[in-house]
Every structure is written in structure tokens, then in C-alpha cells.
Amino acid sequence: MTIYNAVDTTVGIQHKPMKLATALQYKSFYPAIILITFLFANAYGQMQKIENKNLYGVQNAALPNLVLIVADDLGYGDLGIQGSKQIPTPNIDQLAREGVIFTNGYASSSVCAPSRAGLLTGKHQAGFGFNDNLAGNQPGFDANYLGLPLTESTLANKLKSLGYATGLIGKWHLGAAPQFNPIKRGFDEFWGFLDGGHDYVTAKQNGTGMESAIQCNYKKPDLLTYMTDDIGNESMDFIKRHNNQPFFLYAAFNAPHAPMQATDEDLKKFSHVKDKLRQTYCAMVYRLDQNIGKIMKTLQEQGLERNTLVVFISDNGGPANSISNGSINAPLRGQKTTLLEGGIRVPFFLKWPARVTGGKKFIAPVSALDICPTFIEAAGGLVSEKDHYTGVDILPYLTGQEKKAPHQSMEWRYTASIAMREGDWKLIRLPDRLPMLYHLSEDIAEQHDVSLLYPDKTKSMLKKLGSWEMKLPHSVFHEPVEWRIRHLGFYDAAYQLVQPQY
């Protein structure tokens, strides 16, 4: 974006002394000079307006507010709009129905931290060495690199440069060391916690791990009531504080991530669910929905709903088996940590009444990596090849300006697994077996490996995937090796492929 600054156009010009008589000769030209100066200044103002307008016609006077709502470890089918008959989620359902539902929406990783690294940069996180989940530093690695590389600019950095107030409420999980703090990564305001999970009711001033203190740079944090409610309330307050300027709110809920803790009130609503883990999970998702409803209601009450671009997404699929939080990814097979559909295909909705016609589904594959360039373009910024984004601005595809699919292919890499989607074909490569090939339009649950039936397609995708992988840099850190062994076993586990009916 070009910004024109007012300058003295006479600077640097040498003037010879002028006699009084000569000066008086030019007096008759003063009105013309003033008029020309006025017209020139007006032309500059018009040029600035043009420069500050992107292809959607967005000007500074009408910049949209931007709200990114992220759920944590949400099961693919555990929303009413996604087919759940067990968990009522009226607020998320309404957001989806009034906006656009991405039926083939993907996270860029199957676990929390790398998924968020891609989400906030618009770049595939494996491309800057953020391949694994954050854990304690492993032998042979430098702890100073245990977070989002400082070479990477975040969505908050970009929007802040465009005049946005930027706030993160909730989970960070992109590095706990001071150099990685959200306040140093583009966020004006931060209320939340730095690690991957947190207790929902307890935060201690000198606590560690799940009971660490809540961090906040704009006030003294109140005592926790229930984390999901607190994130919702702080998000509402952020909107109210910044209702007179464009803002970017990143509402990063930790629900329904472990520890599995629900209020007694919500548990009673699901007393008919006999499995205690599932009952608690249902109650936590219900409470998440209620707080998303509060955020949407606040936008309405502040008169901001029409020109606010809201995106809802989960960071990855729900965990099952030995790491289960009670989620169900049906009709998908797989879970968090796997590159099966249940690990990476997620609920993904977009709503912007002022620009995007709602009430429709978008079936072409889209990625969480698309959110960053989409928000930047919507905010009046310009995205170019020099930004090296993996994601694309998806708004032209939603408005009909672009007719082709946003992506010809997508790639994933997590610890020992690597995968690629090309059209309706999906290839997964693991270290202990032959590559697996699925045709998703006919086999969404990935039940039928057809790699030997289509050897040419298998070889072609395997070659493309290998070529992509060979260009990736080394990982800047690794997670414990025992995690990798455990995750590999999840590819052979059994999964529930039908949602509960009550």
C-alpha cells in the first residue's frame, strides 16, 4: 500500500534573491498559484483513496472488523450443522447457515501448535521448520528456537500495520519464551495463556503447566470463573473497547481440549449420555457454543455485525483412543495426530454480510492457510508473490470473480507421516507400509485403499509429494520420539463412523 505524505515541494530548490519590483510583477499570479496548489493537493488525496482501496472496494472509512474464532480439538461431526443430534450448537449453526460452509475445509496440521503456526502466517509451517507439536526441548536442539520463528510475520503484524487494533484472547501455543510472546508478535492486547492447555477453573500466580497464571497486558486479570466463559467475556469486552476503530480479534478458545472439565449446570443437560467422558465433552462444546453466541450478539448490539468478517474453525480433528477427549469425527476416519481426514478436515465457516452472500456451501478444498491472506486483502492490504503465502485470498472465489478451485493440491506433514490431496485423490505415506490412496468423493471415510488399483496415480502423487518434501528445511525442534511411535499406531485403530442419535 502506498501512503502519500505531505511535504514542502520547495525543499532542495535554490532561490536567488528577488528584487521588490520583480516580486510585485508576480503578484497577479498568486490566485492561480493557490488554485493549482489546491487542485494538486486534492489529486493527491484522491490517489491515496485509490491506493487504499483493494479489489473489493474496501476503503479506510469502511474497513471491516475481523474476528477469528478457533475451537481446540473439536470433533468434525460434533456440531448440529455438521450432523450432530446429541450436542445442540444453535449459535455456531446460525453463523454457518448465515455464512458460507466449507465442506472441504482443512487445517494445515493435525495437531495444535503447527496448525496455529500456519494459521497465523498464511504459510505452510513445515516450510519454516515448524513441523512438530511444541513440547519440552529435545536433546541436540536449541531452546531459543522452541516457538514460531522470529523470521515469520504474523497476521497480527500485518493488520497492525494497516491500522487495526489487534487482540488475542485465549490460547497462544506458539512459544513460551519471552521472544515469542504474542505482544512481540503483533498483538496489542493479550489475555490468556502461553502453553497448549490450561485448567478451566484454576490459575495460580506462581503456577506452572495447566495451572499457570493468566497473562494480561492491559489490566490485572480477574480470578478465573470458567475458562470458556472468561474467554467469551474478554472477547466481548475487546469488541466494546474498540468499536470505534477497525479491529482484529483472535478468540482462541481452548475448549474442548483437555483437561475435561465442565460446569455442573451443563453436565445436567447431558445426563442422558452415559459415557462420562462423552458427557463432559458434550457439556464443554455446548458451553463453547454459548460463548460464541455472546460474541456474535455483541457484534450485533454494537452495530458491527454487517461489516465484520467472522471465521470459525477448529485447529485440528478431535482426539480419540488413548488420548481421547470424547470427541467423534464421524463420518470421518482418523483423529488428531493422524493425516487421515478425521485429523485434518475440520468445521470451517465464514460470514461477512456486507460482502459475501450467505446461505451457501463451498465444496472446493480450502485451507486454514487461506485465512491470513483473505483477512489482509479484506482489510485493504495487498498480497503479492513476495509474501510467499501458501494460502490464497478466497473471497474472489466466494463472490464468483474466480471460477476455478483455489487449490490444485494440498500437502501435510507431521512427524513420521506425510500426505497430499489432489482433486478428489488423497495419498498418505507412512514409514512402515506401502503408500495408501483414497478417492474421497466416493470414500470419505477412507475405508478402501486403491493404491494398487491405480498404480499410475499412486506413483504420480508419490513423486510430487516427495518433491515437495525434499524442498522443506530441517525442523527447528522436535517432539518426543515416543509420541511419534504412539501416533503411528492410531492409523490402525478402530473409529466410530456414525454420530450418536441422541
What does this structure look like?
The chain is an alpha/beta fold. The protein has 13 helices and 15 strands. The chain has helices at residues 20-25, 30-51, 90-98, 112-121, 155-161, 227-241, 264-269, 276-301, 341-344, 371-378, 395-399, 455-470, 481-489, and strands at residues 65-71, 100-102, 105-106, 165-171, 189-193, 215-216, 247-252, 308-314, 348-351, 360-362, 366-367, 409-414, 417-422, 425-429, 436-439. The strands form three sheets. Strands 6-5-4-7-1-8-9-2-10 form a nine-stranded mixed sheet, sandwiched between helices. Strands 12-13-14-15 form a four-stranded antiparallel sheet, covered by helices on one side. It has a two-stranded parallel sheet with strand order 3-11. Helix 3 (90-98) packs across helix 8 (276-301) and helix 6 packs parallel to helix 8 (276-301). The longest helix is centred in the middle third of the chain and has 26 residues, at 276-301. The protein is globular, with a radius of gyration of 26 Å. It starts with 19 loop residues before the first helix and ends in a 13-residue tail after the last helix. Mean pLDDT is 90; it is low at 1-61.
SS-derived structural category: alpha/beta
Largest sheet: 9 strands, mixed
Order of helices and strands: HHEHEEHHEEEHEHHEHEEEHHEEEEHH
> Strand order within the widest sheet?
6-5-4-7-1-8-9-2-10
Whole-number mean pLDDT: 90
Radius of gyration, Cα only, in angstroms? 26 Å
**Beta-sheet strand percentage?**
5-15%
The total beta strand count reads 15
Estimated helix fraction: 25-40%
Q: Which residues form runs of ≥5 with pLDDT under 50?
A: 1-61
Please give the count of helices.
13
Distance between the ends: 53 Å
Based on Cα principal axes, name the global outline. globular
